[in-house]
Amino acid sequence: MTQPSPSAFSIRPFLRQARGVLFAGCVLSCLASLASFGLLFLSGWLLAGAAAAGIGGIVAQNMFNITLPAAGVRFFATVRIVARYGERLITHDAALRVTGKLRVWSFKTLAPRSESLATQARSGDVLSRFVHDTEQLGQFPLDVGLPVGTAFVGALVAVGVTSAFNPASGLALALGMSIGGLALPWLIGVLTDPLSQQQRDHTARLHADMLETLQGMADIMANGAAQRCIDRLHQRQTTLNRLIMGQAWRAHIVRQLLPILTMLCVLSVLFCASKALQAGHLTTAQLPMLAMGVLAAFEMVAPLMDARLAYERFVQAAQRAGALCDLPIATPEPSTPVALPQHAPLALRHVQLSLDGHRVLNDVTFSLAPGERCAITGPSGAGKSTLARLIMRLIDPDHGSVTLGDKPLNHFTTEQLSHEIGMLSQTPHLFQGSVRRNLLMADPQATEAQMIAALHIVDLHEEVNAMPQGLDTLCGEHGTRLSGGQMRRLALAQIILRRPSFLVLDEPTESLPPSMGTRMIDNVLAALPQAGVLCITHRPEPLPFMNRVFRLHNGCLIAEEGGER
After folding, report:
1. What are the helix and strand counts (H, E) for the chain?
2. pLDDT per residue over 402-451, tens digit each?
3. Are residues 491 and 440 in the same domain?
4. How many Å separate Cα 294 from the centre of its chain?
5. For the chain, how many structural domains are there in total?
């Protein structure tokens, strides 16, 4: 039975793994921002003090010590450069590591959900989530965590330093930074979040449509639907452009409020400082110093609006990734797998299975011993391929059991079953790359002699040898450079290399001439004499090689008369 996912997605474990590096990056970012604050703060005092000394005459000029503040300016400038370089180096490396670990985890999490992905998600959308969403998630510490942490620490220091000179100025700066660091990011979120959500949905549909259009271009053109597909993609892109522009304009308007707020805060601080100057609590040179400090302080909160936009992207990416990772697992892995039995029969006992409310298999009982050869026939849609999927444990039955020896298949891992049972499906998948690469996918240790022998068995060696590059000939995306018969025989050669104990052949002679189909079946059975073979077919070529023949009708498996051989 299908089981829901037991785990919800969270980025926290990945951030914890990189917490040391991220903390170091945050410290360097804070150091760079504080150095920038100190640089402007001290520069304001230095320039104003130098101007005052120049106006005061020779005595004032001799009394003004420019060496110490000039050295301080150089120190802060150097610290800012070094700290910013170190922060970029460390945090980008950490973000890339987090993204890499996220993608590895995503692949491991999605692999057992292949059945749910095939029936409940579009391939283009899955690809988009796997590539773009994991990247958005991996950028969280860089685009959100770092600006927030730096702004918080920088605001505390800036307000504290300003308050040390003049408490009223510090209070004005605290109020201005609160508005710039909290209210404006909140406002930009309120204005852009709805458009961002629509943008996400349209982007997902566009990616899925584009991938499916490219994959099915030959059929689309054959049906004269190319222009309709182009028009649909153009309409989706136009809608997406409008949403992107709308979001950009709203964000731009809010961003323009920050310079206005900054100048208002500068005026407020100068007003409070001028009162303190009149009271004799500040010197003239300290007024521009405090004003420059305000400008530097607002530089630290300016990235928070972009951080708020990045946070919304992160939330959406987490929701999309979580939706895939929470898909049900059709065949959960056993918590404590058992060892595979040797020379044990494969059996179905009183199996019942319904798909979409329709009973496909009804009380099916069947066994296949090692070395035995059985065929199952029946009309299209009778459930023959579903029966093969049960044997491969791509799905589990509603009732009854599928066993290997005396153990149900759910006691074994997918890796164990893949070595024990080989299946040739009706639509075998070939990877982009050469014939050699596809054969090595089945057995990475296979020698060239073994690969040639496997191709001989499936009657494909002469055709591959006649290709310009032989084993290194490219198969194309999904095997498009090969004929249907060549694809099936290459997939069968992959199984031969693995030499499983049981062989499930779903329409093995489809797309082949009768004589070639007969010869191929004969060669395969001779190459794997100890393997139990279940052949699902509606063609006559494999039947003379079978020991038993069954017919699947109305969900029931019926032995055909004369089927025993």
Report:
1. 23, 10
2. 999 888 998 998 888 888 999 988 888 888 889 999 999 988 999 999 99
3. yes
4. 42
5. 2
Query: Residue 386: its pLDDT value, please?
Result: 87
SS3 sequence, 59-111? HHHHHCCCHHHHHHHHHHHHHHHHHHHHHHHHHHHHHHHHHHHHHHHHHHHHH
CB 269 within 8 A of CB 162: yes
- Dihedral in degrees, nearest 10, Cα atoms 519, 523, 525, 530: 170
User: Is residue 313 located within the same domain as residue 362?
Assistant: no
Instruction: Tell me how far apart the terminal alpha carbons of the chain are, to the nearest angstrom.
Output: 36
Least Cα distance to 264 among 195, 175, 376, 196 occurs for 175
Smallest Cα–Cα separation from 492: which of 448, 466, 525, 532?
525
Co-location of 153 and 300 in the same domain = yes
Tokens representing 376 are 């199952």
Residue 377 lies in a domain: yes
- Tell me whether residue 72 is exposed, middle or buried, using C-beta atoms within 10 angstroms of its C-beta: 0 to 12, 13 to 18, 19 or more: middle
Are 409 and 393 a contacting pair, CB within 8 Å?
Answer: yes
Q: Is 506 a domain residue? A: yes
**Residues 6 or more apart from 247 whose CB is under 8 A from it?**
192, 195, 196, 199
Q: DSSP 3-state assignment of 369?
A: coil
| CATH code of 416's domain | 3.40.50.300
Q: Where are the alpha helices (DSSP H) in 111-183?
A: 114-120, 123-128, 134-138, 140, 146-165, 167-178
Nearest to 551 by CA among 536, 529, 541: 536
420 domain residue, yes or no: yes
User: Do 202 and 351 lie in a common domain?
Assistant: no
CA distance linking residue 200 with residue 244, whole number of Å: 10
Q: Do residues 215 and 73 both lie within one domain? A: yes
Residue numbers of the chain with a pLDDT score lower than 70: 1-9, 48-67, 123, 561-565
Indicate if 417 and 542 belong to the same structural domain: yes
| Axis-axis angle for helices 167-178, 257-278 (nearest 10) | 170
State whether residue 163 is helix, strand or coil: helix
Q: Are 56 and 185 within one domain?
A: yes
Other beta carbons within 10 Å of 219? 9
In Å, how far from its chain's centre is CA 461? 38
> E strands within 276-345?
none
Q: Tell me the β-bridge partners of 366.
A: 348
Rounded Cα gap, residues 292 and 45, in angstroms: 9
Give a yes or no: residue 241 inside a domain. yes
Contact 128, 208 (CB under 8 A): yes
CATH code: domain of residue 177: 1.20.1560.10
Q: Note the pLDDT of residue 271.
A: 93
What range defines the domain where residue 30 resides? 12-325
**What's the pTM value of the predicted model, to 2 decimals?**
0.77
